[in-house]
Amino acid sequence: MSDKMMMNRCEGHDARRDGFTLVELLVVIAIIGILVALLLPAVQAAREAARRAQCTNNMKQVALAVLNHESQKGRLPRGTYNYLDSTGAGTAPPYGQHDGNSSPNPSQDKYDRRCWFHDLLPFVEEQVLSDAFEDYINKPLAWGPYPTALDFPQSSTVAPSFMCVSDPISPKLQTFHPGLLTELTQGFSGNYVGCAGSYYQNMLRETDPDFEKYGNNRFLSGAYSDGVLLGGRDVKLSTVTDGTSKTAMISEVRLVADTLGNDGRGRYYNPAHGGVLFTTLEPPNSQRGDEVSWVSELNDNTMAPIAQVGAGDAYMMTARSYHAGGANVARVDGSVAFVSESIERDVYQAMGSRDGGEVAN
């Protein structure tokens, strides 16, 4: 065989071996698919770990702001300046008054619809927003009464420190006033809420030492519940006798978009309906529906269920998060821990009480 023929045969053989066969290509694609399937959960887990760490950092900044407020004012911030009554009207007592006998009309009280969020703004690098807010509510309106937080023109300003980055709704700015389903109203809603105690926000257990005096008064039941951020009353740090490292102060909630209705959970500029406080009655991420006022429709959303509409008698809101397995909780000493949704019920309830004599680890 001539050299030329041998060369042509070799060249033909090499040409047939260029590239991949279909089978080889399918094998490569399958291997890549397997690698992606193996790596994707790890990537997602790493991203959520980073988001949870950011949530922890944000919550810690808010918790430290509470302590800075206490250091400057000699008291913890009031959970809400409104009493958490059974109608959702939220009568606001004059500052420092808690007897429930001579409260003015809420529309004439500059503390109406104010809550712990507003007190903390100067301590979370929101001094400009705080100055604008204080200037607004401390100037009487032309026709006499003071304005309320609900009418603050800059209420839609986002305060990033109060947001959990794992929540796909946050920041929530679209909120509906009942009957005004096309209006942007009622301002910024955030994820972080204060601890009002171990039971309901405005109901005392019969075993509570204050039950005989306040148990039948929804105004004062909330003001004398066993948490640290209460409806209508200040709490002194010295009364946290269960220990600041053992007592819950702040946790988080899942926000619900107001697409067809009205959901006030996390709504800082209208807190009188129970949406800015939680209790430890139910463990984190409980499937029991929340009981807060003036939610316009029931839902069976397993991520954030609601159990009542309209005005409610007793308020109860559970800590919930988009972090798998539990929620972040800040304690009164400023530390933040992740609390499992499978925590023992009595241990978790003990965390919500400031002076119950329990020891919660």
UniProtKB/TrEMBL annotation:
The lineage of its organism: Bacteria, Pseudomonadati, Planctomycetota, Planctomycetia, Pirellulales. SUPFAM superfamilies: Pili subunits. This is Putative major pilin subunit. It holds the Pfam family SBP_bac_10. Signal peptide: none annotated. Residues 44-345 form the DUF1559 domain. NCBIfam families: IV_pilin_GFxxxE, pre_pil_HX9DG. It comes from the Bacteria. It comes from Botrimarina mediterranea. Residues 99-108 have a biased composition (Polar residues). Residues 76-108 are annotated as: Disordered.
